[in-house]
């Protein structure tokens, strides 16, 4: 059968389900004509492969009308120009597909623009920059760069996608030293709302560069990032686990670490509570952490304690194999809270609240797991952000130290989607309300609690107003409207948006 006949049959088959609108189907057909061999419909192998490749396996159920797999910025430009023709058509941009929120890098009955084939990393030793494309995963970037003894500020797990991570900010083991990953973006090759391919850097477009460092997909589709490279040698990484009876001492150690992280920003941790345990992932940018780098954690008895000197690429890639077998529904939600130097018990209370809320919601639901990941945002991060020109989150060196909690749900049944969202939402609501009381009682004692606690987009949940929490939201929204007057990205694509 001729390819065109197969295409006609496939279109008819897609039309038979009658869910995507005629406008959407016409858009799919136009993209197919403009980019032969780069658009796929339900039932075709390339569609099935791409649609199944989400970290949250539940997203495959959404089902786009068609999936286009461009291979260059020019292809993306053609797609954007075609999308402009019919304003009713929804679409989503997918790089790694690690965002677990429905409708961010996934779209029901719309056009999925999947950037898998726009991938690759090159290092320019003279300029000390890496050119990184959005498809692929961090292991594919960090491995090749390690051979040149350099790295970039990257995801902490090699499996994490690149495009969404960088467009939404990006927290890294190197962030206390160098700021968010997005702070180290020197240039963006961006397909703008009118389909033109533009080069954005802080010299040419200072406001846009700042807005892009954490502003998500509202200004365009990035097809290449120019990233500042940093020297890297052997690093140290370890994991510890703690017994429940040591809970209070463990949370005191966490508070102590967050408070003092700025003194040695080469040290980084992720503290995870949940699934019946408390564990600590430690990282040090150097072959051996100096005594005291992990503060009070060093004096606590651990039930498991492993650590070794290794390459940064090995740290990032350590779990790559594990994730090949990971197959689960997942959810994210996040809250940013101020560190309270006068109240180290805050961490323990914040954790206990989650235990209470999950116990209430999950009675009899044994197949739902959940974790809280505590991530320090020391003010050294804001200092690094400021020296690099500022970011959308508005981090500043003069700010207080904060911590971000990523609330993750891991479960298998569609029937549990709602309860996972409900309990996470209740948790962030109660914490937000309680924070008012925390501030009031601190004020009564003459203590000021840091007011500005913007959300961290990479860990946020589907209904969270990430962009509305940014201090310069009004400026960014105005800029967005100038660059995207028809609302192509603001109204028709998935992702976090500035509130009206
Ligand atoms: C196992 C795991 C570990 C993680 N570890 C970290 C971590 O260490 N640090 C951290 O900060 N986050 C981490 N995250 C969160 C992660 O950064 C986000 O899920 C991020 O969105 C992943 O990038 P992606 O390319 O897969 O995004 P996608 O899911 O592909 O896209 C997410 C959003 O970004 C937009 N987008 C994607 N690509 C582009 C592009 N090229 N141009 C414009 N917009 C685009 C999409 O429109 C969408 O709204 C982790 C997530 C998981 C599941």
TrEMBL record:
Signal peptide (residue range): 1-18
Record-given protein name: FAD-binding domain-containing protein
Classification via PROSITE patterns: FAD_PCMH (PS51387)
Pfam families in alphabetical order: FAD_binding_4 (PF01565)
Transmembrane segment boundaries: none
Family indicated by similarity: Belongs to the oxygen-dependent FAD-linked oxidoreductase family.
Keywords: FAD, Flavoprotein, Oxidoreductase, Signal
GO MF annotation terms: FAD binding; oxidoreductase activity
Domain FAD-binding PCMH-type: 60-232
Classification of source organism: Eukaryota, Fungi, Dikarya, Ascomycota, Pezizomycotina
């Amino acid at each position: 059968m001729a390819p065109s006949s197969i295409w006609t049959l496939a279109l008819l088959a897609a039309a038979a389900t009658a869910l995507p609108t005629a406008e959407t189907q016409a858009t799919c057909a136009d993209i197919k004509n403009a980019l032969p061999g780069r658009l796929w419909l339900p039932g075709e192998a390339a569609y099935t492969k791409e649609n199944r490749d989400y970290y949250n396996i539940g997203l495959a159920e959404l089902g786009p009308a068609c999936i286009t797999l461009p291979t260059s910025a020019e292809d993306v430009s053609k797609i954007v120009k075609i999308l402009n023709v019919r304003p009713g058509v929804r679409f989503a941009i997918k790089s790694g597909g690690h965002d677990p929120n429905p409708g961010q890098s996934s779209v029901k009955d719309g056009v999925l623009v999947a950037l898998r084939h726009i991938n690759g990393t090159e290092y320019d030793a003279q300029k000390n920059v890496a050119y990184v494309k959005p498809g692929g995963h961090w292991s594919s970037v960090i491995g090749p760069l390690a051979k040149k003894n350099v790295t970039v500020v990257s995801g902490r797990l090699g499996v994490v996608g690149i495009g969404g991570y960088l467009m939404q900010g990006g927290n890294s083991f190197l962030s206390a030293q160098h700021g968010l990953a997005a702070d180290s973006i020197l240039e963006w090759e961006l397909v703008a709302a009118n389909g033109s391919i533009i080069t954005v850097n802080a010299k040419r477009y200072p406001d846009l560069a700042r807005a892009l460092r954490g502003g998500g997909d509202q200004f365009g589709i990035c097809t290449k990032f120019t990233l500042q490279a940093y020297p890297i040698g052997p690093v140290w990484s370890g994991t510890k686990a703690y017994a429940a009876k040591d809970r209070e001492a463990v949370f005191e150690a966490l508070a102590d670490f967050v408070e003092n992280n700025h003194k040695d920003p080469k040290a980084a941790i992720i503290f995870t509570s949940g699934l019946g345990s408390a564990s600590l992932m430690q990282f040090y940018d150097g072959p051996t952490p100096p005594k005291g780098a992990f503060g009070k954690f060093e004096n606590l008895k651990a039930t498991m304690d492993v650590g070794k000197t290794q390459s940064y690429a090995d740290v990032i890639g350590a779990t790559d194999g594990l994730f090949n077998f990971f197959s689960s529904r997942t959810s994210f939600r996040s809250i940013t809270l101020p560190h309270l130097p006068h109240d180290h018990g805050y961490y323990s209370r914040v954790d206990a609240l989650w235990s209470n809320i999950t116990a209430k919601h999950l009675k009899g639901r044994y197949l739902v797991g959940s974790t809280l990941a505590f991530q320090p945002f020391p003010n050294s991060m804001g200092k690094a952000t400021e020296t690099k020109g500022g970011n959308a989150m508005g981090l500043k060196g003069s700010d207080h130290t904060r911590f971000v909690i990523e609330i993750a749900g891991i479960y298998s049944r569609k029937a549990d989607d709602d309860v996972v969202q409900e309990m996470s939402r209740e948790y962030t609501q109660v914490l937000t309300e309680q924070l008012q009381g925390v501030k009031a009682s601190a004020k009564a004692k003459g203590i000021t609690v840091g007011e500005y606690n913007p959300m961290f987009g990479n860990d946020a949940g589907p209904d969270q107003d990430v962009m509305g929490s940014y201090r310069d939201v009004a400026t960014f929204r105005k800029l967005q409207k100038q660059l995207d007057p028809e609302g192509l990205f603001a109204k028709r694509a998935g992702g976090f948006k500035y509130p009206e």
